[in-house]
Design brief:
Length: 190
């Protein structure tokens, strides 16, 4: 009996194509030993200059975010599991200001979401997952003024997560609504 292999495609599933956001396809080269995948290279011209790489494991039903950084760009690539990546543009000078994008990623279809500073971002994991994350400013240099967030489920974000009651960090559970974040931070000056 043959087993049918189900393939899933990592792609944007809702919202607009946000300015300066790239869903980068990767090529996995396979042979009898396993596989090799280039996960980042300067020649891609992606606009991010990573200074720190991290590998993050998440349990099922975890939502990380929504965070925003005004000084550094980010790279996210799911290497195992199934997740959603939600972005919301709060850059006042951007043509996609106050618009969102939602991506569904599968570890079996390697792609990277690469985006600039000024985008609210969060990730929800359907299954236990592992992702690679790179930032253009080292974690030890993050400051309170550049590690902000808002409620993941704020209706003003308009992100159709399609989930309820995710597992959040204590800090994320206390994040303010988007309107409060925009008023009490310097985001409007970006």
């Amino acid at each position: 009996m043959q087993t049918q292999q189900i393939t899933h495609t990592s792609k944007q599933i809702a919202g607009l194509a946000l300015k300066d956001v790239e869903l980068k396809e990767m090529t996995e080269t396979c042979d009898q030993r396993g596989s090799f995948t280039e996960t980042f290279a300067d020649h891609w011209g992606s606009g991010i200059a990573p200074t720190q790489w991290s590998m993050v494991r998440s349990e099922a039903h975890v939502l990380r975010g929504l965070h925003i950084h005004q000084r550094h760009d980010e790279y996210f690539s799911l290497i195992q599991g199934h997740c959603l990546v939600g972005l919301h543009d709060v850059r006042p000078t951007s043509p996609t200001y106050l618009q969102y994008a939602l991506y569904e990623l599968f570890g079996t279809d390697l792609k990277a979401v690469i985006f600039p500073a000024g985008l609210l971002h969060g990730w929800y994991f359907y299954t236990p997952s592992i992702h690679l994350q790179a930032v253009s400013e080292s974690y030890n240099n993050y400051a309170n003024d550049d590690n902000l967030g808002c409620r993941w489920d704020d209706p003003a974000l308009d992100i159709p997560w399609g989930i309820s009651n995710p597992i959040l960090s204590e800090r994320a559970a206390r994040f303010p609504p988007l309107s409060e974040l925009l008023v009490t931070s310097a985001i409007l000056e970006v």
